[in-house]
Design brief:
globular, single chain, 15% strand, 46% helix, 331 residues
Length: 331
């Protein structure tokens, strides 16, 4: 999830664990715990693109990290914060660390919660930024912050934030199931033979969902809003994996393909090959849009293959948001 959401979650968890004893400092340290796992992004800047992608939401988003560094930070904080024991601070940091990857596991990228095992949990039922999840959560946390630490009302307000956010998360799982059925039903009615299907919400909401469908020669992308009245349309994106024939034995390219879980197309633009990661969809919901959220350019260096992420074109961001809002309201 986005940084603000993780800060709010960490602060609320800190309050739930130790707020009655140390007051707003529990929120402060919980918020810090909620941000630390994402420092892997900074570490990734010292590595090549593929290695940085492999590191993202890896070790720092694992149970191992939560346990080991939960105890370490708990001990360290106890050296100068004497209102709670090292064990109590460790408990706060542990839950602050652990709830971060658990929340991220519901997004499209997912997390390696069980690192070092190569298992990435990605339930894909909530977008990385969802105001309906974050805003109520934030409001209850702010209201709790201004209550005395021993106040019953303070604990109730914080608990309400945790409960409402958890209920909303549960609702998105139900919506994922409903929309999945809508997509598969549409595919059957249109006589489309497919191998696999993945569904996920579109940006900033849980009303409009998208589906990636794999067939033998191409991928199909379709959208379904809970307000739709017309049949779902699917748009074709040819795989063109054959364009990578010269890189069949290239380990760097293989690693990038592994990251995409084989949900990728290959395109050629101005003589350069691009791998487009379909898991994160397109930058716009406009029909047949060709701008993928994540694309990687492949080129041959003197002694190795160079892969660079293609910068996103933000010039059309306003129009993309307008298209999104129109599509959310139904087709």
């Amino acid at each position: 999830m986005d940084s603000l959401t993780q800060i709010v979650l960490g602060a609320a968890v800190g309050e739930a664990v130790l707020g009655k004893k140390v007051g707003n400092k529990a929120m402060l340290y919980g918020a810090i715990a909620g941000t630390i796992p994402d420092l892997d992004v900074l570490a990734g800047k010292f590595y090549d693109t593929v290695t940085a992608l492999e590191m993202h939401r890896g070790f720092t988003h694992s149970i191992v990290f939560s346990v080991v560094f939960g105890w370490f930070f708990g001990w360290f904080i106890s050296l100068y914060e004497k209102k709670a024991t090292a064990k109590e601070w460790a408990k706060l940091m542990f839950w602050g660390f652990l709830t971060h990857p658990i929340l991220d596991a519901h997004t499209t990228w997912g997390t390696q919660l069980f690192w070092p095992f190569d298992i990435r949990l990605a339930f894909k039922n909530i977008f990385v930024v969802d105001p309906l999840y974050t805003i109520p959560f934030l409001l209850f946390l702010l209201l709790a912050m201004f209550q005395p630490k021993s106040s019953i009302k303070r604990r109730k307000l914080n608990n309400w934030g945790l409960i409402i956010s958890s209920v909303y998360m549960g609702i998105t799982l139900v919506l994922k199931g409903i929309t999945y059925t809508k997509f598969t039903s549409a595919l059957d009615k249109q006589g489309i033979v497919y191998k696999e299907i993945e569904t996920k919400p579109t940006p900033l909401n849980a009303i409009l969902w998208s589906a990636n469908i794999e067939t033998d020669k191409d991928f199909l992308i379709g959208y379904y809003s809970l307000f739709d009245t017309q049949p779902i349309k699917f748009y074709s994106y040819p795989k063109k994996h054959y364009l990578l024939n010269d890189f069949n034995k290239d380990n760097t390219v293989k690693r990038l393909i592994h990251i995409t879980n084989n949900w990728y197309t290959v395109t050629e633009k101005e003589g350069e090959l691009r791998i487009n990661d379909l898991r994160f969809g397109l930058l716009s919901v406009a029909p047949n849009d060709q701008n993928f959220a994540f694309s990687f350019e492949i080129s041959k260096g003197q002694d190795k293959t160079i892969i660079t992420e293609v910068p996103r074109d933000h010039k059309k961001a306003v129009q993309s948001l307008k298209d999104l809002w129109c599509r959310v309201k139904g087709n």
